[in-house]
Sequence to fold (442 residues):
Amino acid sequence: MVVILIGFTVRPDLVGVTSLVRGLWLTEAAYYGLLRNLHSTGIDREKLRSIWTALCLRLFESRLVKVNGKIVLLGDGIKVGKEGRKMPGVKSLHQESNNNSKAEFIMGHSCQALCLLVQSVGSFFAVPLACQIHEGLVFSNRDSRTLLDKIILLLGQLNITVGFYLVVDAYYTSQKVALPLLKMGGHLVSRMKSTAVAYYPAPPAKRKCRGRRRKYGKKVRLMTLFETLSESFETAPSPVYGERGVDIRFRVLDLLWRPMGILVRFVLVEHPVRGRIVLFSTDLTLPALEVIRLYGLRAKIELGFKQSLHVLGVYAYHFWMKAMNKIRKGDGDQYLHRSSEKYRNQIRRKMRAYDAHIQLGLISQGLLQYLSVTCSREIWASFGSWLRTMNPDASPSEAVTMMAMKRLFPEFLAALPLSHILKKFLTRRIDLSRCPDYRLAA
Fold:
């Protein structure tokens, strides 16, 4: 497993497990050893996520973004294109995007991810904690869980014992997410859909009547409040990360939201460029500008997705299942409730390999981010290349850190004592004919 973590940081390309072999100049036999490791039941995914989360909270303790003493988590979904006709979990997925270069429908895996928001020099990092494939397979026709239920289950696997805010997009603004969060000691910060409605608290009754006291008052569509309450809006400099010289107008309202049946905080925001938006928070003590700032930082998870996709190859796995029934383009979920137990176990084994590859890739990305935050000067000094946008005064990106790791890894391995377990393990599996630089290390 340690070899796989190292391989993610020094791989020369993003072509599956074979690139890990090329990056470490391993022998052909090592390739099958890596495959067996990823498919092994020896990697307990839930335990690994819990241990990794605890380690991140300790490593980044002084860099954690905290609001009201609570840490900040980011959540979102990611759809990864996969064309394999014998890959479990692959289904037709719809992509919502304003970018016309993206296909509206793709075949691939639908995952959900959770990240920890960390502050670095001049920027922020979304440190990945966990990601799992949450669509494509139906093992039981009595399983009615949705993506909202599954992201809460994934959050529970992290075993976070401190208070937190979960910042997500409008898709996750639901009682299925908000109510379990409150039980965990967390709060939800998100965006409301344009059709959302809320209720003013009912005015006190003028006279006593039989029956339960009225709870909900006047119903109001939130987007109409921009017109009806326009004169009571406040103006302030935009707290969104990266914006300078921009003033926004906002208004705070604590109203009853019927799905939860409690008072929640709505923040109406009017931006001179981005337009109007309604933000949502279950914490009534959270200031409006802080809600706006936190939601603006949600975009950091999108940047983290790009790094994991195009720099580390976290989702560049190609594990096919020979015994699987072929899927066709446009197919949806694969229903397995009538399949044999042997076939279902083979599917589970392959899904375990996908999840292990993703989780180990995310851990490698998080370790690169930790080095970027704590050793930025050393990384820039070892970078040995040039970028048009490079800024040695800021924390380097995962790509820059990865390039420095590639450059220094042969020297690191050569400097290790002969008795070191990692050196002994690797040198027995390195093909020296393909790697003359490692002869000193051997």
